[in-house]
Amino acid sequence: MSRRNVLYLFDVDGTLTKPRQIISEDLKSFLLNDVKSQVYVGLVSGSDYVKIAEQMDGEEVATKFDYVFCENGVVQYRGGELISSESILSHFGEEKLQKVINFALGYMSKLKLPAKRGNFIEFRSSMINICPVGRSCSQAERDQFSQFEIKHNIRQEFVNALQAEFKGCGLKFALGGQISIDVFPEGWDKTFCLNHIDDQNFEEIHFFGDKTDPGGNDHEIYNHSKTIGHKVTSPDDTKEQVKKYLNL
C-alpha cells in the first residue's frame, strides 16, 4: 500500500520524549512502522543532530525518518542525506553575537538559583542557546530548576530583558525545551523547515508539539497557514492523538 502524500512532523523534546530523555521503544516502533506505513514522517527540533540522535536512540535517525530538521530546519536531512545548512555567524557577524552573549552572561551572573552548573551558552549553527542553570546540570537539577521557575518565571523575565535590550536587531528569543532560551534570526523559527518541503506539494502537513503557546518555540509553526497544528502534553498524548487521526 502506498503512503498518502501527507507529512506528520514532530517536535522532539516533550513531544516524542520526556525532556532530554530517550524515546521509548514502543513509541519509536509505532512511528517507524504504524505511522510511516501510512504517511511521511519528519522531525523538527531546535537541537543539533547529535542531541536529536541521542534522544531518538540512534545515530542513524536521519535514515529512518523521511525528514530530520535540526536547529529549526536550518540544518536539513532528507532521505538520510545532509541537504543544506545555514550559519547564524555568517548571518549576523561576530560583533552582534558577542553583544548578545556578553549581555546574557552578565544577566545570568546576577541570578540566584537553586543550582548553577556549566555550559550556560551553547553556540549552534543556527542559534545561540542560553541556559541559566547550565546544560551540564543533572536530571535532578534540571527538574529542580523547572519547579523553581514555576514560582519565579526566570526564563520569561530573561526573554523580556533580551527583547528590550535588542529591540529592532532582527533577533527572536523563545523558550526552548525545559531549561533554556533559543536566540535566532527572525524567520529562523521552526517555520523555516517548511521552506524545504514546498517542492513536495503535500496535501496536508500535521505538526505535533508541546511548546505551542506564545513565546514557546513551537508557537509559530503550530499556527502557520501551511500546517494543521496539534498541541500535545507528553509522548503518550502524542501517540494517542496520532492513533486517533490515523485510525490506528
UniProtKB/TrEMBL annotation:
<dbReference type="InterPro" id="IPR036412">
    <property type="entry name" value="HAD-like_sf"/>
</dbReference>
<dbReference type="GO" id="GO:0005829">
    <property type="term" value="C:cytosol"/>
</dbReference>
<comment type="function">
    <text>Involved in the synthesis of the GDP-mannose and dolichol-phosphate-mannose required for a number of critical mannosyl transfer reactions.</text>
</comment>
<comment type="similarity">
    <text>Belongs to the eukaryotic PMM family.</text>
</comment>
<dbReference type="GO" id="GO:0006013">
    <property type="term" value="P:mannose metabolic process"/>
</dbReference>
<dbReference type="InterPro" id="IPR006379">
    <property type="entry name" value="HAD-SF_hydro_IIB"/>
</dbReference>
<comment type="pathway">
    <text>Nucleotide-sugar biosynthesis; GDP-alpha-D-mannose biosynthesis; alpha-D-mannose 1-phosphate from D-fructose 6-phosphate: step 2/2.</text>
</comment>
<feature type="binding site">
    <location>
        <position position="11"/>
    </location>
    <ligand>
        <name>Mg(2+)</name>
    </ligand>
</feature>
<feature type="binding site">
    <location>
        <position position="227"/>
    </location>
    <ligand>
        <name>Mg(2+)</name>
    </ligand>
</feature>
<dbReference type="GO" id="GO:0046872">
    <property type="term" value="F:metal ion binding"/>
</dbReference>
<feature type="binding site">
    <location>
        <position position="124"/>
    </location>
    <ligand>
        <name>alpha-D-mannose 1-phosphate</name>
    </ligand>
</feature>
<feature type="binding site">
    <location>
        <position position="135"/>
    </location>
    <ligand>
        <name>alpha-D-mannose 1-phosphate</name>
    </ligand>
</feature>
<dbReference type="GO" id="GO:0004615">
    <property type="term" value="F:phosphomannomutase activity"/>
</dbReference>
<feature type="binding site">
    <location>
        <position position="222"/>
    </location>
    <ligand>
        <name>Mg(2+)</name>
    </ligand>
</feature>
<feature type="binding site">
    <location>
        <position position="182"/>
    </location>
    <ligand>
        <name>alpha-D-mannose 1-phosphate</name>
    </ligand>
</feature>
<feature type="binding site">
    <location>
        <position position="20"/>
    </location>
    <ligand>
        <name>alpha-D-mannose 1-phosphate</name>
    </ligand>
</feature>
<feature type="binding site">
    <location>
        <position position="142"/>
    </location>
    <ligand>
        <name>alpha-D-mannose 1-phosphate</name>
    </ligand>
</feature>
<keyword id="KW-0963">Cytoplasm</keyword>
<comment type="subunit">
    <text>Homodimer.</text>
</comment>
<keyword id="KW-0479">Metal-binding</keyword>
<dbReference type="InterPro" id="IPR043169">
    <property type="entry name" value="PMM_cap"/>
</dbReference>
<keyword id="KW-0413">Isomerase</keyword>
<dbReference type="InterPro" id="IPR023214">
    <property type="entry name" value="HAD_sf"/>
</dbReference>
<dbReference type="GO" id="GO:0006487">
    <property type="term" value="P:protein N-linked glycosylation"/>
</dbReference>
<feature type="binding site">
    <location>
        <position position="210"/>
    </location>
    <ligand>
        <name>Mg(2+)</name>
    </ligand>
</feature>
<protein>
    <recommendedName>
        <fullName>Phosphomannomutase</fullName>
        <ecNumber>5.4.2.8</ecNumber>
    </recommendedName>
</protein>
<feature type="binding site">
    <location>
        <position position="180"/>
    </location>
    <ligand>
        <name>alpha-D-mannose 1-phosphate</name>
    </ligand>
</feature>
<feature type="active site" description="Nucleophile">
    <location>
        <position position="11"/>
    </location>
</feature>
<feature type="active site" description="Proton donor/acceptor">
    <location>
        <position position="13"/>
    </location>
</feature>
<dbReference type="Pfam" id="PF03332">
    <property type="entry name" value="PMM"/>
</dbReference>
<dbReference type="GO" id="GO:0009298">
    <property type="term" value="P:GDP-mannose biosynthetic process"/>
</dbReference>
<dbReference type="InterPro" id="IPR005002">
    <property type="entry name" value="PMM"/>
</dbReference>
<keyword id="KW-0460">Magnesium</keyword>
<feature type="binding site">
    <location>
        <position position="13"/>
    </location>
    <ligand>
        <name>Mg(2+)</name>
    </ligand>
</feature>
